[in-house]
């Protein structure tokens, strides 16, 4: 997708662009077929998430996995149409449903990421309060999200937290990158195939990294 976007305006590359788009379509159909078993994995993950002790991660991750399972069901239906088993299926409708389910799953993942970030910000403020042993007024200001120091201080603390927690940083980056596709498809924030392709590459690299180094994967 990214390559075809970069060269689509070059007159001597039109045949190559067509081949790249055909390859993209073929790979999309193949990906749908290979993901058929992921529905079971998503349901098992939802059941495990429902047993988490903390309320917010439990709700966010359970909703995320169930939404992903629904997305994969819609994706499987679209695959049946692409291979000719259900030729009269309403493709735009099922594609929209699939995108909405995927979008919901990503939002729940981002909500969980923000919960983790907020919890760590609060812990950092409490640690700073204990070390400095300052007056009560300053303590309360720090616990209210470092409002007294302004946006710059908040961003510095956020940077330090993400720097000290690579799994959280990678999960946040991956979810934000994955969000570009649904936002464009649903018309919420239109981009272009180049941006979507680049975000897809970055998301895939993060996914490969967390598979190669499991300690970099955010614990569910």
From TrEMBL:
Keywords: Membrane, Peroxisome, Peroxisome biogenesis, Transmembrane, Transmembrane helix. One of its GO terms (biological process) is peroxisome fission. Signal peptide: none annotated. InterPro entries: PEX11 (IPR008733). One of its GO terms (cellular component) is peroxisomal membrane. The keyword DNA-binding does not apply. Its main location: membrane. The chain crosses the membrane at residues 194-212. The keyword Protein biosynthesis does not apply. It is found in: Peroxisome membrane. This is Peroxisomal membrane protein 11A.
